[in-house]
TrEMBL record:
Keyword terms: Actin-binding, Cytoplasm, Repeat, WD repeat
GO molecular function, one term: actin binding
UniProt xrefs under PROSITE patterns: WD_REPEATS_1 (PS00678), WD_REPEATS_2 (PS50082), WD_REPEATS_REGION (PS50294)
Low complexity bias: start-end ranges: 275-301
Gene: coro7
GO biological process: actin cytoskeleton organization
Compartment(s) where it occurs, according to its Swiss-Prot or TrEMBL record: Cytoplasm
Biased composition (Acidic residues): 765-775
Top-level taxon of origin: Eukaryota
Described function: F-actin regulator involved in anterograde Golgi to endosome transport: upon ubiquitination via 'Lys-33'-linked ubiquitin chains by the BCR(KLHL20) E3 ubiquitin ligase complex, interacts with EPS15 and localizes to the trans-Golgi network, where it promotes actin polymerization, thereby facilitating post-Golgi trafficking. May play a role in the maintenance of the Golgi apparatus morphology.
Name of the protein described by the UniProt record: Coronin
A GO CC annotation given for this chain: cytoplasm
Entry-linked InterPro entries: Coronin, DUF1899, Quinoprotein_ADH-like_sf, WD40/YVTN_repeat-like_dom_sf, WD40_repeat_CS, WD40_rpt
Start and stop residues of the WD repeats: 45-72, 438-480, 481-513
C-alpha cells in the first residue's frame, strides 16, 4: 500500500488515478515534495492519462481549459514545468485520452464536445460535432480508427470516425436469434475494506505471470493507494500458462501523428509475456525495475536482473541447511528488565551491537547514553541506577572494534566520532570523557565500519555525501572518498579488505579502491526504492548482495557481480512488504545469509551459491513479538556439538535473548565437518592502518572448530545397510502346482507335529476282559 495520501475533492468526469508500468499518478490536495512521489500540484486537474509508449509521459487536463504534457523524470525529482501546453479554448475540460497506436495524438473532451490534437502542433486537428448534453467519457477503439463518446443520454453511445463522417447510437445489449442477451457475464467480485475515490488498471506488462495474475488495479481511498490483484487458481504455478496470457500490445508506437492523420492505420506490434526472475511478466517494472535513461545519467537506476540468467528462489536444488532451526535459548541466558531503551534509532543503524563479551544498547535518555552489559552476567537487571556511556549528543551509529573487545566507537549527530574504552569486567562508573574524538565531517554521520584486517582503520559516511577513513592511532583523517549524489544508505568492506562498496539513495552502487583513487572504480544500478538499502560481500567477494526496495516498495534481495557492477544484478529474491530495511548477516563459512529488519518478527535465511538458482531458501525463524534489533555473535560462540551454525542476540522491549540456529543431524556424536570448515581468526590483526595505506595486505589465519574429543563425521565408520524385508523376487517367484501342494502339506505337517510319534493315550494300559466280566 502507498500510505498517507489525500485525494483531491474536485469533482469532474475524468479519472482520479492512472498507472503506467512504473508510476502511479493521482489528483491530490497535498502540497509536498518527498520520496512519496508527489511531484507538484496542478490547477484543479480533471483527468490524466499515461502514454502507452512511455511510462514517464503524463498528460493532464484541468479546469483552466488547458492540456499539459509532463515528463516525469523520477520519483522524488522536481518537475520544473510541462513539456507542452495546449489550449483548446472550449470551456472547462473534463476528459483526456491518448491514442492507442500513434504517438502524440490526444483526444480532449469538454462540457461542449470533443477535439483531437497533435501535441506537437498549436492547433486542433479536428473539432467534433457538439454534444447537446454533458460529455462524460471518451474512448479510442483498439485499432485507433474511431473515437467513442458518451453523454448523459441514457443507454446510448455516440461513435465518431476521424475525420467525423458518421454517427450511430448503439444499445447496451445485443440481439441474437431474436432474443436479447446480456453483453456481460459476472466472473468474480472483490469486497473492498474502504470507500473508493478512484480506480486505475495497471498495464498487462506489469502483472505477475508466475503467480497466474491476470489483472491488477489500484484503488484510491481517502488515505491509501491499495493494489488489488486478480489471480486464476492453478495447481502448477511458476509455469507460463499460454491460455491465460495471449500476446499483448507492446510499448512501441506503430506510427507518428502525421501518418495517422494522413489516413494510415497500423497496429502496435504484439509482445509475448514470459516469466522473469521474480515470476512476473518480462518488461514489467516489478520484475525489472528501471527508470527512464534520462533520469540516470546514462545508467539504469534499478537493479535489473537479466531475464535469461536470473532465476527464482523456488527452482533448482535444495540446500543442506533447508531445515535450519532457530530457537530462543533458556531464560537463564537472557538479560531482562531493560528500561528506557531507545527504539527509534536511524534506519542506517542496526539498533544495538555486540561482540563475544558484551553488548551495547542505546537508551532514550538525554545526552545520547549507551548501556553496556556483560554477556557473562545474564539475569534480571536491578531497578536502580546503572552506569552508562554519555556521548552528550544523539547517537547515529556505533560498533565494537573487532580487534579490541573493550573499544566502542560511537558516531553522533554533531558530525563527531567518539572512541570509548570499556574497562575490564564492564562498566562500574559512568563514562563522560572519550579516549579520543574524530572531527572532519560537516554533517550528521550515517554509518561507521571497521576495516577487516588493519587495526585502528575506520570508515564513516555522512550527510555531507563523503566517506572518510580514519586512523584511530593518530586520531586523524587519512582518506576522503567522493562521488555520492545523495544519502548513503550503507557500506561494506570487501573480504580481502582492498575495496569498499556503498549503496546510495541516488539508485547507484559504487565500489572504491581507497588506496588508488578517491573516486569510484565501478558504478552500477542499485535498488530503485528510496526507503533504504544495505549491502554485503558474499562468496569470497565475487558478488555483492544488496537488500533494498523495488518500485512498489516491496523488499527485494539482489545479487550483483562485484567485477561488473555496471551490468546490474544477475538474480533477485522477493521478500515481503515492510517499511524497515532488511539487515543482512553473512556467514562466510557456510555462505548463509540471515536477514531481518527492525520491527520484524521473521528472520529470512538463504544459502547463496555461485550458479543458478543463486538463492536457496531455508527455514526461517519466527518470533512471537517484533524485535527491535538483531545482532549476530562470533562463530566461536556457537555450540558445535549441537550443530549450531550461528548465534544471535534478539533485542525486545525489555530483554536481550540469545537465539541459536542449528542444523538437525542424526550422528551428533561426530563433528559435522561438512558444515564447520576451518574458520578465520578475524579478531587478530597483523596490519596497522599505516601499513595498509602504504599498500600492504594480509590474510587471517584459520582454525578448526572441532573439539579434541570428537571425530569428524567424514571419518565415521560406514554401517552396512540392513534389509528389513525380503526382496520382492521372493514373493513374485512362479511355482508349479506340485511345488505349491508340497509346501502346503509340509506346512500342515509342521503344525500337527511328527505323525510317527505315538499319541499319549496309546501308552495307557486298559482293563482285562476277565476283569470286565467279573464286574
Amino acid at each position: 500500500w502507498i500510505p498517507a495520501v489525500r485525494p483531491g475533492s474536485f469533482t469532474s468526469q475524468g479519472s482520479s488515478i492512472k498507472s503506467s508500468c512504473q508510476l502511479v499518478a493521482f489528483t491530490t490536495e497535498q502540497n509536498r515534495h518527498d520520496d512519496g512521489g508527489i511531484l507538484r500540484i496542478l490547477y484543479q486537474v480533471t483527468d490524466l492519462d499515461f502514454s502507452p509508449f512511455d511510462d514517464d509521459l503524463l498528460v493532464t487536463c484541468s479546469a483552466d481549459e488547458t492540456v499539459k504534457v509532463w515528463h516525469v523524470c523520477g520519483l522524488g525529482e522536481e518537475v520544473q514545468g510541462p513539456k507542452t501546453t495546449l489550449s483548446p479554448q472550449d470551456g472547462r475540460l473534463e476528459v483526456v485520452q491518448l491514442h492507442p497506436c500513434s504517438s502524440g495524438i490526444v483526444a480532449v473532451g469538454s462540457s461542449r464536445g470533443a477535439q483531437v490534437w497533435d501535441v506537437n502542433h498549436p492547433a486542433a486537428l479536428a473539432v467534433l460535432e457538439q454534444h447537446t448534453e454533458q460529455l462524460q467519457s471518451l474512448s479510442w477503439k483498439q485499432d485507433g480508427s474511431q473515437l467513442a463518446s458518451t453523454s448523459k443520454t441514457r443507454s446510448s453511445l455516440r461513435v465518431r470516425q476521424e475525420p467525423p463522417s458518421a454517427m450511430c447510437v448503439c444499445p447496451s445489449s445485443c440481439q441474437h436469434d431474436g432474443k436479447q442477451k446480456p453483453l456481460f457475464v459476472t466472473v468474480s467480485d472483490c469486497l473492498m475494506e474502504m470507500s473508493t475515490r478512484g480506480v486505475a488498471m495497471v498495464p498487462k506488462l506489469a502483472v505477475d505471470v508466475g503467480s497466474c495474475e491476470v489483472m491488477r488495479v489500484l484503488q484510491l481511498t481517502d488515505g491509501f493507494i491499495v493494489p488489488v490483484s486478480y489471480h486464476v487458481p492453478r495447481k502448477v504455478q511458476l509455469d507460463f500458462h499460454s491460455d491465460l496470457y495471449p500476446d499483448t500490445a507492446g510499448q512501441a508506437a506503430a506510427m507518428k501523428a502525421e501518418e495517422w492523420w494522413s489516413g494510415e492505420n497500423r497496429q502496435v506490434s504484439l509482445r509475448t509475456l514470459s516469466i522473469s526472475s521474480s515470476g512476473r511478466s518480462s518488461g514489467s517494472s516489478s520484475a525489472a525495475p528501471s527508470r527512464s535513461p534520462s533520469s540516470t545519467s546514462g545508467l539504469s537506476s534499478g537493479c535489473q536482473p537479466s531475464p535469461v540468467n536470473a532465476r527464482s528462489v523456488h527452482s533448482g536444488p535444495s540446500s543442506k541447511f533447508r531445515h535450519l532451526q532457530g530457537s530462543v535459548l533458556h531464560r537463564d541466558t537472557h538479560i531482562t528488565n531493560l528500561r528506557g531503551l531507545h527504539l527509534t534509532t536511524p534506519g542506517e543503524c542496526d539498533g544495538f551491537c555486540a561482540n563475544g563479551q558484551r553488548v551495547a544498547v542505546p537508551l532514550a535518555i538525554a545526552g545520547g547514553q549507551i548501556a553496556v552489559f556483560e554477556l557473562s552476567q545474564p539475569g534480571k537487571l536491578p531497578d536502580a541506577f546503572m552506569p552508562t556511556i554519555q556521548n552528550s549528543v544523539n547517537v547515529a551509529d556505533f560498533c565494537w572494534d573487532p580487534f579490541d573487545p573493550h573499544r566502542l566507537v560511537v558516531a553522533g549527530d554533531d558530525a563527531k566520532i567518539r572512541v570509548w574504552k570499556v574497562p575490564e569486567g564492564g562498566l562500574t562508573d559512568t563514562l563522560t570523557e572519550p579516549e579520543c574524538v574524530l572531527q572532519g565531517h560537516t554533517e550528521k554521520i550515517y554509518t561507521i565500519k571497521f576495516h577487516p584486517y588493519a587495526r585502528d582503520l575506520l570508515a564513516s559516511s555522512s550527510y555531507d555525501l563523503s566517506v572518510r577513513l580514519w586512523d584511530l592511532q593518530t586520531g586523524q583523517e587519512v582518506k576522503k572518498l567522493k562521488g555520492h549524489l545523495d544519502q548513503i544508505f550503507g557500506m561494506a568492506w570487501s573480504p580481502d579488505g582492498k575495496q569498499l562498496a556503498t549503496v546510495c539513495k541516488d539508485g547507484k552502487i559504487r565500489v572504491y579502491d581507497p588506496r588508488r583513487s578517491d573516486e569510484p572504480v565501478q558504478e552500477g544500478p542499485g535498488p530503485e526504492g528510496h526507503r533504504g538499502a544495505r549491502l554485503v560481500w558474499v562468496l569470497g567477494g565475487k558478488f555483492l548482495l544488496v537488500s533494498g526496495f523495488d518500485s512498489r516498495s516491496e523488499r527485494q534481495l539482489y545479487l550483483v557481480p562485484s567485477d561488473c557492477v555496471k551490468s546490474g544484478s544477475i538474480a533477485c529474491a522477493p521478500a515481503d512488504v515492510s517499511p524497515s530495511t532488511l539487515i543482512p548477516f553473512h556467514d562466510p563459512d557456510t555462505n548463509l545469509i540471515l536477514l531481518t529488519g527492525k520491527g520484524d518478527t521473521r528472520v529470512y535465511v538463504f544459502e547463496i551459491v555461485p550458479e543458478e538458482p543463486y538463492f536457496m531458501e531455508c527455514s526461517s525463524f519466527n518470533s512471537s513479538e517484533p524485535h527491535k534489533g538483531f545482532c549476530f555473535l562470533p562463530k566461536t560462540s556457537c555450540d558445535v556439538r549441537d550443530v549450531e551454525v550461528a548465534r544471535a542476540l534478539r533485542l525486545s522491549k525489555s530483554s536481550i535473548e540469545p537465539v541459536a540456529f542449528k542444523v538437525p543431524r542424526v550422528k551428533k556424536e561426530f563433528f559435522q565437518d561438512d558444515v564447520f570448515p576451518d574458520s578465520a581468526v578475524w579478531w587478530e590483526s597483523s596490519l596497522s592502518a599505516a601499513s595498509w595505506l602504504s599498500g600492504s595486505n594480509s590474510q587471517h589465519r584459520k582454525i578448526s572448530l572441532r573439539p579434541t574429543d570428537m571425530a569428524p563425521v567424514s571419518e565415521a565408520p560406514k554401517e552396512a545397510p540392513v534389509r528389513k524385508y525380503l526382496p520382492s523376487s521372493v514373493y513374485l517367484e512362479e511355482k508349479t502346482d506340485e511345488q505349491k501342494k508340497e509346501e502346503l502339506l509340509s506346512a500342515m505337517v509342521a503344525k500337527l507335529g511328527n505323525l510317527d510319534n505315538p499319541l499319549p493315550q496309546e501308552s495307557y494300559e486298559g482293563v482285562d476282559e476277565e476283569d470286565q466280566s467279573d464286574q
